[in-house]
Design goal:
By secondary structure, this protein is mainly beta. It has three helices and twelve strands. The strands form three sheets. Strands 3-2-6-9-10-5-4 form a seven-stranded antiparallel beta sheet. It has a three-stranded antiparallel beta sheet with strand order 1-11-12, with no helix packed on it.
């Protein structure tokens, strides 16, 4: 077997290799929220996936070192918010360590099952956590949809590519 001229030399598996490859993968941007003891938490996620239609299941990854993990590790329900291209600042706020994620100008209210629901998003779900699967320094959380709204703000989805937020283009 000969190497194709456009392919580089293969690199040994490493965290840097994985990060470098996935910088080339465009992903939708979501914010995951939860609440415990009246204290809301949330984080920006690009690992959101639809898992099954029956029953309706989603999954996302969260690092066990994340400030949100202790709440997500114990909560029964999470909020899943699909961000629009107009929400780059919101995505950055929920991605930034130490940020006041739920202070002004973040628009949110307490939704079904006591989950923080963000305003101005394209769509949102509230999911019952049904599993937390160990995956290296992360957990894959499986959630069963219990409520939601597919008809939020108008607009196109926010994407993450090459280390920055982007808009979908025709």
């Amino acid at each position: 077997m000969t190497a194709s001229p456009e392919l580089g030399t293969p690199r040994t598996a490493s965290p840097d290799l994985l990060k470098s490859v996935f910088r080339r993968h465009a992903a939708g941007v979501a914010v995951i929220t939860a609440q415990r003891g009246g204290h809301p938490v949330g984080f920006t996620a690009t690992s959101l996936n639809s898992v099954a239609a029956e029953p309706p299941l989603i999954s996302f990854g969260i690092g066990t070192g994340s400030s949100s993990w202790p709440v997500v590790a114990e909560t029964g329900h999470v909020g899943v918010h699909i961000l629009g291209e107009h929400q780059q600042d919101l995505a950055a706020t929920f991605a930034r360590s130490g940020a006041d994620r739920f202070g002004p100008p973040t628009d949110w209210h307490t939704g079904p099952e006591g989950v923080p629901v963000l305003g101005g998003v394209l769509a949102w779900l509230v999911c019952k956590v049904v599993a937390r699967v160990p995956a290296g320094d992360h957990r894959i959380v499986l959630g069963q949809v219990v409520a939601g709204d597919p008809a939020g703000a108008a607009g196109r989805p926010l994407l993450y590519h090459q280390g920055r937020f982007n808009a979908l283009r025709d």
